[in-house]
Amino acid sequence: MAGRAAGPCVIVFFAGSAYDGVAGTDRHLADELSRQRPVLYVEPPCSVLTPLLRARPVAAIRASSMRSPALREERPGLWRLVPRVLPGAQRPGMHHVTTRWTRAKVRRAAARIGQPVTAAIATVSEDLLDAVAGVPTMYFVTDDGAAGAELLGLPRRRLLAAERRQAEAADVLAVVSPVLRERFAAMGLDAAVVPNGCSPDAYEGVDEAPWPDDVPRFDRPAAGFVGNLNGRLDLDLLEGVADAGHPLLLVGPRQPSCPAERFAALTARPNVVWTGMRPHTELPRYLRAITVGLTPYVLNDFNRASFPLKTLEYLAAGRAVVSTALPATDWLREDAEGAALIRVESSREAFVKAVGDELAAAAESGNTEPGKPEQNKGEHSMAGRRRAYAARHDWKHRAREIAGLLDQVGGPRDSGDQARSGR
To answer: What ranges does the record list as Basic residues composition bias (predicted)?
Structure first.
């Protein structure tokens, strides 16, 4: 790549997750930005010892990254960098060395790509935005890291201090939820809210997608959850759905913060199917298998500040949604259409009843298998209304909002119209 001629300017995107991991805000936003402007996706630093020391599903993902070149072109317009650093990367004192190494590796990677850098975006609080000097910078906060310090396994005070430094140093501060905006406002910092989105086009053919090989054909409508199975989830709600006898499909890796014994007991039930992690491109096949999508998050400070992607993805696939009472869900329900499409309940009894009501409504309509044409076709059907609503929150709109914010401080201009998100 060293001999590549100069071309369009590159956005350096410091991500908080591996590109091949469970697809979250970082990957979706970087993918969409890369369709407007080339992007260098910088993964979290990884020690060469990580795959050997971490015997968990994510280790396999990172091990795959380690076998790949540190810098590679994923597809035209999108490069991926895995910064390889010394062991103990996040230990006190050592994390400063890790940050310096990462900045240096990013500068070398940008030079190898051979195209000028025009802006830098970080969704992490590490001091990385100055890796390329003289370009507009954005700190995009997608989670309340300090509230989730225990879940992340990092010191809360260090996260708070790093977060504030990053917010004050960046040219633009953006956050994913109104709760985060209020949090930064209390520090005297103004933040733009850019919520998560979805990719409606990816689920356009969900009802005709091949049935997943590792999921049995249910004899009645099923509920499902797609994403990381971790300490953020209220297992009591999932257990309640299973106790009620409903088929339950779980798609995603189990993280150590999810209680192992309880989760094993849940997935051992005959009406519960757990697939483990599956590639993001295969999710339409798994969403075909469910009628109701679940967002069963615990109501704590970390989750209140979040904006679960899965709620919009379920809607994009035309599925009913039952969620706990998160501020992000309330934001989606502020207009009459959103309120009609998302059921919100937080107690076990009410949550399970809402799931049962949605499944029963599907069964009464004759839809014993998700994807049945008479239920899911037509713009005036419930499935059509859900998809239309999700389309108003397309990642294309979110990427334009990000590009527009950078443009205000001299960053990349969006080649398309500055479309509104439809809110």
So the answer is: 383-399
CA distance 68 to 174: 32
Instruction: Write the CB contacts of 224 (distance below 8 Å, at least 6 apart in sequence).
Output: 248, 249, 250, 251, 286, 287, 289, 290, 292, 293, 294
The domain defined by 10-197+394-407 folds into: Rossmann fold (3.40.50)
For domain 200-391, give the CATH superfamily.
Glycogen Phosphorylase B; (3.40.50.2000)
The arithmetic mean of pLDDT across residues 290-303, rounded, is: 96
Query: Cα separation of 322 and 295, whole Å?
Result: 6
Q: Which pair of tokens denotes residue 114?
A: 């051979």
**For residue range 81-134, what is the model confidence (pLDDT) as tens digits?**
998 866 555 555 556 677 888 899 999 999 999 989 999 999 998 889 989 889
Cα–Cα distance, 179 to 190 (Å, whole number): 13
CA distance 141 to 305: 10
Q: How far apart are CA 403 and CA 409, in angstroms?
A: 10
